[in-house]
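DM from R.C. (forwarded with permission)

"hey, sorry to bug you on a friday — could you get me a structure for this? deadline for the figure draft is monday and I only need the backbone to look sensible"
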Amino acid sequence: MQAELIVDARNAVGESPVWVPEENALYWVDIPVGTLQRWSAESGRVERWTTPEMLACIVRHRDGHWVAGMESGFFSLHPHADGSIDSQLLAHIDHARTDMRLNDGRCDRQGRFWAGSMVLDMGANAVEGELYRYSAGQHGPVTAQLDGFIVPNGLGFSPDGRTMYLSDSHPLSQQIWAFDYDTDSGTPSNRRLFVDMKPLPGRPDGAAVDAEGCYWICANDAGLIHRFTPDGRLDRSLTVPVKKPSMCAFGGSRLDTLFVTSIRPGDDQDPQSLAGGVFALDPGVKGLAEPLFTP
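My reply, with the result:
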């Protein structure tokens, strides 16, 4: 299960990897510099597009373009072959503070876009993070569905869509919760502790769910990706050659490759460091196709 470096991206905060099967390509973002990136599995070519705001998370629209969680809300993104990108605000978010942005996000199995918000300075320990749901055709400001977080992260949904997972990756929290999820209304309920990460190596960051219903989460600061069974038992841990893996996603022609983005801290000036790179692992199981944002 040796991790393979596929892109020496040197991203400041690589996040939100999404496999696009019809292109045989992986897309992901670098949050603070606001870039959408694409790696072709066939050619190895990497393309980049710069957005007007910090770019936190992306989901593929059923029509082929992207829907993104950025600083001020949800946007549509249309990247072009010449390196330009068109962006349009779809729904504004009234953050509790001006120094906030969206963070981790993904679609539920029905195609609704969920994303959390956070204060830019994690050291502020500000419990201002909220979780938002954006549905196609929605107009006006988006209202929070859940609140009381510092850095909401680790969103994931069980294969049948009836369990939602969510974490808070801040050092003061390091909790992962499970919720019952009403697939008709898109409403989470019955919040309960799924895993307490404090006794384990690493803080919970971005996550993915495999075809067996197990939950994979990047253990930031520990260079690991943990797999938990649906009852919250630690099943295995895979190693990556960087300290800060940030999010994982299944892809490849058989959805049996685990792609992992990572963070390059600002004080990492080592030219040999792989931090901020994108990696591929063989997890030994298959994943699920990422749901499309569906009108």
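R.C.: lifesaver. The radius of gyration is 17 Å.
me: no worries. The chain has a mean pLDDT of 96.
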